[in-house]
Amino acid sequence: MKLKAKFMNLFRKNVNVFKKISAGLLAFMIMLSPLTSIVNANSIQPNSGTTKAVPQIDVKKPSVNPVLYGATTISGGNLDKYRDKVNRKTVIATVHVILKGEDGTEKAKLYVTPTSGIKWSVKLPEGKKVEKGDTVTVYQQIGENKSPEVNVDAKPSKASTVTLKMPTGEIWIEQTSSNIVNEDEQAEAVKMLKDANTAVAGDMKSVKFTIDGTNHAYYEVTYTDGSTSGKVEATNLQIKKVTENSRKADLNEITIVDNVVKGKLPGPGPFDGIKVQLIINVKKEKSGDFCTDKGCKIDKDSSKPVVVTLEADGTFSYTLQEQNKESLTLDQIVGVTVKEPHKFVSCSTTTVKPVIPEKTEVKDPRKLTAENKTTIINAIKEAYKAPDGTSKLPNGTGEWDEVPAVIQFDDSGNVKIFSGNDVAGNWDSDGHYAPETNPDGSLKVKEDAQPKITIQAKDLVKNIKPDAPTLALSDDKKNITITPNKVDTDAHIITVSYKDKDGKDQTTTATKADDGTWSIVGEGTVVNGVITLPKDKVKGKTDVKAKVTDKGGVADDDKTPLTSDFGTLTVEETKKETKADKVRALGGLDPVVMKKWVKDKLDWKDGVKVSDSASDENKAKIKEFLDEAGTKFTDETTPGRNTDTQGDYTGTIKVTFDDGSFIEVKDQKLYVSNHVTWFSKEKTPGGEVVLNENTPDDALVVEFKLGEGTKVDNTNSGAIEGNKDNPVSYQKYKVKPNTDLKTYKNPILNETYYNLINSKVKAIDKYTEPVWNGKNGSVTENFIITESNNVFTATATKTYDITFDANTGGGTKDKVTQKANTEYELPASNTFTPPANKEFSGWQIGDDSTNLRQPGSKITITGDTTVKAIWKPIEFKVDFKAGEGASGSMKDVPVTKGSEYELPTPTFTAPKDKVFAGWKVGDQEGVKQAKERITITGNVTLTATWKPIMVDVSFDKGEGSGNKDKVSVAKGSEYTLPNSEGFTPPKNKEFAGWQVGNDSEVKAVGTKITVNENTILKAIYKDIEHKDIKYKVTFNGNNGTGSMDSATVKKGEKYKLPENAFGAPSENQEFKTWEVDGKEVAPGTEITIEKDTEVKAIWEEIMIKITYNPNGGNWNNDSANKTIEVKKGTTITIMEAPVKDGFKFKYWKGSEYHPGEKYTAVEDHTFTAVWEENKKPGYPDVNPSEPGSNNKKPGTPDVNPSEPGSKDKNGTQSRGTSSLNSKTNRIPKTGVNGTNMLYAFVLSFAACAVLAINRIYRKEK
Fold first, then answer.
1. Hey, what domains does the chain have and what are their CATH numbers?
2. What's the DSSP call for residue 679?
3. Cα(1078)–Cα(804) distance, rounded to whole angstroms?
4. How many CB atoms lie within 10 A of CB 894?
5. How far is residue 510's CA from residue 518's CA, in Å, rounded to a whole number?
6. Cα(1042)–Cα(1038) distance, integer angstroms
7. Where are the beta strands (DSSP E) in 161-271?
8. Is the dihedral of CA 1186, 1188, 1190, 1191 positive or negative?
């Protein structure tokens, strides 16, 4: 612990020193890292192009691009690669290219090992190029493995056969000083060249046009075959510098609902050759760069330019393409560019604006009514409809797609439109957004929401002039009142003109201040905008006129105040007391309610009565005035009232007396009823039921009831079903007497009331034909309403159902509904399809199965009845015929249709030498055997058929071999003896003929014999002469390649085996000897031929000798060469190095192999040890006199340029792209790995020390 404490104290005092030492050590080790490849040869890997021990693989053919005259490079593809799984490296093939002249002279021999990809290319040596008659041979190689060669003949290029004609004239270029040709100018130049060379224009793959100021223009053409024209100057093509700008296009105003962008080019036409492009969406963030004094720049994030067509008048338009997802959004920037021939491009933009709806006419632009606001909102919604009907308002999107945009008005009448996404609310249980609402029912917007669109009030409303004011006398006739229309809330000035008692013109003016108070100048008073002018200030028989002037509108072009038309009142002179005045003084008149039927005559006198407040005496006096012949009663209501249509009408009756005075009786009510009207109804749905009290007093109550067997389905309260004993009330009306319900129509539905009621009355189940009964209970057709004919009851007749049972038959028959106690005629027998194999027997009524009824008979219906079809089986017969040559008979057999019948064994006597072959069933093809079953579908005739008895002729091979199939023939028939095909004769014999059964006679082929039983034919052979027998000697390559001709040798002669002409199965095998009849026989040996003979080649592995020469060294004092023998193609491991005093082993020469490396043995090879004398001060590392030393002078190339394609130890081309001067440079390995390990250890230690010191230092702090 003390030691640790001392160390920590030491560390604390010298922490900076430790840090500097550790950091310095780490930096030193990192500095050494690039030198490790020099210090330690073990870290140097062989050139990746050097392939050692690559197994035998198939290398694919490279591809070669067309080789054209004049080419200085040769290229191609299909580069092969091999994955070395042991070393975990990918070995890329080396491509070898040989160029030969027409006389076969080698012009260049090149190779290249690409570093990646599948393409390759070599450049011919300086001064060399492909010429007519040249051929190119290309192959690729990995290790010792070569691909098949590809031979390509040089051919003329398109460029070598074409002489381009350069265009003439002028071409205008914008950036001549920078030698920049833009896309449009390039296209124009290419067109000029192709127009001048139409014959070869189709062969041009690409054309590059370049300039050098305004003095030189050049073309470079690449043809479809890859050849190029080189840079050709167009000497007669004049380059003109563009100096003018194209005119700018004017875009029409675009709103968010438009789907067509329109514009026009200013100035006169023609407009030919002008290119106009629209950029539907110019990226806002880059819009400042779109149009500048340096030209037009379209950002990559902006929409793709669209070329539009110019009309003859310079206008253009473009319809947005929905399939291209083109649309307009608020504040979107739309750009346009114009390019006139020989001028710079011009550009301009416009911004997509909100839609301003048609202005709404209002009385007071500063105080909108609820009706005004609704009209404006509807106008906005209509204005924001796109051509396809979709709304362009900012309705909710995504999860708010059910929420509409919100339109609000501020205190100044401006409209603010909020997105549906900004509506406050919550999600309900079904996942729908439930918006919150304001007290007025409108949608509530979130507090922090900002409007998407704002429309000023001045753009929404148009002021209209006030109405003319109303001028009237007060009830006491003492004053004249001038009253503006109440809707004219912006009335500002009321001007009254009149003549005073002296006939002088006078004016009274009332003015409304900003705070809403009124002031007046002139006679009269003003209260809340109503002027009162004393009548006695006005001269009689003159007109008082008044007009109202408002404050004007809110828009700049609408601020002029508007003035109404004049309201006028003629002031009569003061007269004596009139009759009207007297009636008023006596108590006056009151209205009376009038109740009438439609088209009744009206006497308006019935609508007036003496006021109830008058005394009885005064009532009598007033009545006298009313009853005077000169008193008239007229309706003064606008429009006038009448009894043409039903309704409740309130109006004014004017009572005019014979002295011309009058009294208007206001609020007089007239109730006009249709001849059929309602009896009672709910005041509100589900609320109090009220009776109709407004019909004329003679109205009759008419009631319709539902009795037995009837119902009505479609009433508001559900279905109503009648009752026999207590008929149910269905409908009540109040009806004008003597109205015929069969002819009187509902004025709205245009249908008679009888039909309206009768059409809804139906018979319930098991009833039919509802009828109406009058009050007396009898069926009636009289629906003329009187006091004795105003109640009607519906009843129906009882019915029963007749149903039909097919009883396993097919088809259906609808049930029949029949009135009770009526007769029903039974249907036809073919009503149902009989079951299989049955026919109709009769009808069973109900459960009575003993008394079947036949079609056409009648039954009485007293209840629900089932009529059931009864079926019986169909019977057929089977009869038998003996058939040709047979005799005897068989009895007919009865069978049921559809049943299966088993065919019997016939009892007929068979014809001679024949047996039963089977039954022929009717006219059917073929026969059936006894015990088989047939299905009975009708009467059947079975005819017996007969066939001959068959016997077998079989064959005995005798002394031979093989087999021959037996033959079946009819008993007693003749048979021709066949040849012996199928049998092989014994050795040295041939077929002589047949022995038939036990007969010793040998019969020749073709002899006819009669066969009455099974017969055996035995093959008989005879000796053959040997004088002309020959055999074949054939050769089997035993997997080798190639072929050898066979030989024909006479039996018993000698044959000398030839030398082998087959190729070995692999490059690692060689021919050993021949094998004949399982024995090895050397070429040149004679064999005796006694049969067809096969001679098979025998192969053996090639053995390779590998020798290690220690070159003065030794292994454990053994300095002799060491030799091993291995199979060709075997991969071996290079043996350990010998030792030599005073020297260090460098490598095995042939080539520079090191112990432990792999080597594939393909031929005898000697490895010679190369030594390096131990280094002494002042001496070089390598002894030039030692075998294998590289004694070259400084600057001498590693590879002799005269030997292109020099090889490394495996004959593999070294890696790289240089085809003539590359060489694999290798640094010797020593076999010692210690330096690497020591370096790694020290570097790791230094890094850990720095980390540890910093950690301790932080902890101590």
1. 63-156 (2.60.40), 169-241 (3.10.20), 244-353 (2.60.40.10), 355-464 (3.10.20.890), 471-571 (2.60.40), 579-673 (2.60.40), 676-799 (no CATH), 806-873 (no CATH), 875-948 (2.60.40), 1103-1173 (2.60.40.4270)
2. S
3. 96
4. 8
5. 7
6. 11
7. 169-173, 204-212, 216-223, 232-233, 237-241, 250-251, 260-264
8. positive
* Other C-beta atoms lying within 10 Å of the C-beta of residue 135: 17
Q: Classify 1081 as helix, strand or coil.
A: strand
Residues 218, 199 contacting (CB under 8 angstroms) = no
Rounded Cα distance, 206 and 193, in Å: 12
Those residues whose C-beta lies under 8 Å from the C-beta of residue 521, and which sit 6 or more positions away, are: 508, 509, 510, 511
Structure tokens at 779: 């069926």
| Nearest CA among 260, 262, 304 for reference residue 283 | 304
Query: What is the pLDDT at residue 1026?
Result: 58
Task: Give the amino acid at 1105.
Answer: K
Give CA–CA dist 1020/1008, Å, rounded. 17
What was the pLDDT predicted at 1024?
74
Q: Give the total residue count for the chain.
A: 1261
Q: CA neighbours within 13 Å on the CB side: how many for 698?
A: 10
Residue 663, SS3 per DSSP: strand
Strand ranges inside 707-766, DSSP E: 710-712, 720-721, 728-735, 745-746, 751-752, 761-763
Q: How many Cα neighbours within 13 Å face the side chain of 441?
A: 1
0.90 exceeded by the pTM?
no
Residue 673 makes CB contacts below 8 A (sequence gap 6+) with 595, 596, 597, 598, 646, 694, 695, 696, 699, 734, 736
Q: Is 183 exposed, middle or buried (0-12, 13-18, 19+ CB in 10 A)?
A: exposed
Return the pLDDT at 787: 93
SS3 label, residue 748: coil
Sign of the Cα torsion 1198, 1200, 1205, 1208 reads negative
3-state secondary structure string across 907-922: CCECCCCEEEEEEEEC
What does the alpha-carbon distance between residue 1261 and residue 310 come to, in Å, rounded to a whole number? 81
pLDDT, tens digit, 9 for 90 and up, residues 447-460? 899 999 999 999 99
- What would the pLDDT profile of 143-187 be if each residue is shown by its tens digit? 999 999 999 999 998 888 899 999 999 999 988 888 999 988 999
pLDDT in the model for residue 48 = 39
DSSP-derived secondary structure letter, 442: P
Helix (H, G, I), strand (E, B) or coil at 381: helix
Strand runs labelled E in 1064-1142: 1069-1076, 1079-1081, 1086-1088, 1093-1101, 1103-1109, 1122-1127, 1131-1133
Amino acid identity for residue 861 in this structure: I
- Give the model's pLDDT for residue 1248: 61
Give burial (CB, 10 Å; 0-12/13-18/19+) of 1249.
Answer: middle
Which helix (H) or strand (E) segment holds residue 991: the answer is strand 989-996
What pLDDT is recorded for position 27? 56
Cβ atoms of residues 305 and 337 within 8 Å: yes
Please give the structure tokens belonging to residue 513.
Answer: 């201040």
Confidence (pLDDT) at 929: 93
Strand, helix or coil for residue 200: coil
Terminal-residue alpha carbon distance, the chain: 21
- The DSSP letter of residue 20 is H
Specify the pairing of strand 1093-1101 against strand 1030-1036. parallel
In this structure, what are the phi and psi dihedrals at residue 187, rounded to the nearest 5 degrees? -60, -40
Other beta carbons less than 10 A from residue 486's beta carbon? 10
Low-confidence ranges of the chain (pLDDT < 50): 1-13, 15, 33-52, 1178-1236, 1259-1261
Structure tokens that stand for 981 in this block = 């095909």
CA distances from 178 to 34, 182, 214, 888 (A): 47, 11, 10, 123
